[in-house]
Every structure is written in C-alpha cells, then in structure tokens.
Amino acid sequence: MDIDPKYKPMIVGDNRKMKGVPSAHFGVVIFDPPHVGPQGRDKSRKRFDVDFGATVECGKKQNWNLSYLYPPFLKQAKRVLKPDGLLLAKVTDMVNNHRSKWPHCDFMRMAEESGFTVCDLIVKIRKGPMLSNKWENAHHARKRHSFWIICRNSQECERFRSPAR
After folding, report:
1. Does 124 map to a domain?
2. Which residues pair with 88 in a beta bridge?
3. Of 86, 70, 90, which Cα lies nearest the Cα of 151?
4. Does 81 reside within a domain?
5. Residue range(s) defining the domain that contains residue 21
C-alpha cells in the first residue's frame, strides 16, 4: 500500500483510511512511516519531504513529530489484520531543537491503547557515522538507531495452536 500510485503498489491508499481493504484479511501488516515531516528545503538536490512522503504537518502544533498519525493507522491495522495477526513497525527517533523525540515509545503506548500486544522491540543500529557539514559534534547517539516494533493483534504474544490429533 502506498498513497502515491507512481510506485505501483498493490493498493493505492492512505494507511489511515484503508478504504476498500477488507477486514480481518491480512496475517501481517508492515508499517514504515515517514519519520520526520517537512523540514523546509535544504540546499541539496534531494527533496526529503517529497521523496520520503513526509508531506504532512510536523510543526509546533504536533510537538515536532508525526506520532499523531499513529492512532488512525493503528485503528485500521487492527481492522484489516486477522485475529492473532502481526503488526511490524519500523520507527526512528529524532531530535528537534536539541530535544529528543521518542516516537518508538509513542508507537508502543498507542499500539497497546489500540488493543495490540507489544511483543518485541528490535534495535537496528545504522552502520557508519552520521555525517553533515553543519555538525561538528553529534550529541544524540540514539539517532543512529531505528526500531522494529512487533505487535500481535491479540492479548498474547505467542500464537497458540491446538495440538494435532
């Protein structure tokens, strides 16, 4: 699923609405949202906000992060997942104005509030240094991480099967 048809997804749509997607249809949903919103245009050729789909509001009103987008997505993910289905989410923390934002914590809390059971958290550490000609020192080491959050659409993490007869 992608909101932009130019990527030729199987389903064109907004993950906060999922119109036309049947309920209890998928065994797994994978969520890799934009991690930062529009940050203005830098002087590079890369158009980060457009290239990475980060075109929704991400300003002071939203506390400089995109966590406010999680509840409508989680409601739809719960609807389209089969009972006991898995939700895999890749979330990256960020820094704004020298303050850490913790979207991975927001996601886990909001997933639990939506009826999911958060079962695991896998930390992926990026290789190589984060480089920018604007920085002399990196003060926030966590920004080198991304998190895979594994949730189950049930009250248990393990999927129990009845014994073979």
Report:
1. yes
2. 30, 150
3. 86
4. yes
5. 17-41+65-130+145-156
> 135: exposed, middle or buried (C-beta count within 10 Å: 0-12, 13-18, 19+)?
exposed
For residue 1, pLDDT over 90 is answered with no
Query: Could you give the percent of the chain with pLDDT greater than 70?
Result: 63
Res. 92: pLDDT tops 50? yes
The total number of structural domains in the chain stands at 1
Measured over the CA atoms of residue 111, residue 48, residue 13 and residue 59, the dihedral's sign is positive
Q: How far is CA 76 from CA 24, 40, 108, 119, in A?
A: 10, 30, 16, 19
The rounded distance, in Å, linking the Cα atoms of 139 and 145 is: 14
Read off the pLDDT band of 84 (50, 70, 90). very high
Three-class HEC string of 142-153: HHHEEEEEEEEC
102-114 confidence digits (pLDDT tens): 888 999 999 999 9
Report whether pLDDT(43) > 50.
no
**pLDDT score of 74 more than 90:** yes
Inside any domain, residue 163 = no
Task: List the structure tokens of 129.
Answer: 């240094």
Residue at token pair 């949903």: 29
Could you report how far apart the first and last alpha carbons of the chain are, in Å?
A: 39
CATH of the domain at 76: 3.40.50.150
